[in-house]
Amino acid sequence: MTQAEIGPPPQLAAGCLDLLRARGETLATAESLTAGLISARLAEVPGASDVLRGGLVAYATDVKTSVLGVPSEVVERYGAVSAACAEAMATRALAVFGSDWAVAATGVAGPDLQEGRPAGTVYVAVAGPGDVRTQKLGLDGGRGEIRAAAVDAVLALLEAALA
Question: Which fold has domain 3-162?
Answer without folding.
Answer: Maf protein (3.90.950)
